[in-house]
Description:
This protein has 110 residues and is mostly helical.
Amino acid sequence: MMKIMDAEAAISSTLNKLGQIAIDSEDGMLKKAVFSLASRLRSMAGTKLSAKVRLLTLAANFTAGQDLQRNQFGDGIVQTWNYCKQMSEKQEPQWQILARRAGWTPPAEQ
């Protein structure tokens, strides 16, 4: 998710990636945030889906503005970024998650 938010890509590509995250994620909070970001991005983009965008740049530009909708969108981006950062610091490495699902258990601490 953080890679998507930090990458500059066409709005349509960003929306597709956000949709895939929402489908694949088991995290209810993240799904809710992704749906909200995608909905706001889609409504703001209108028909300009080929335009390139970087969500973190939008957040920096929108949080300082006068438009309430843009401010809320910018705040949502920042909150989602912070949530993902917090979760990535807490969570086990991806290889351990996959290994546990396959039946692996870590060796006992001595």
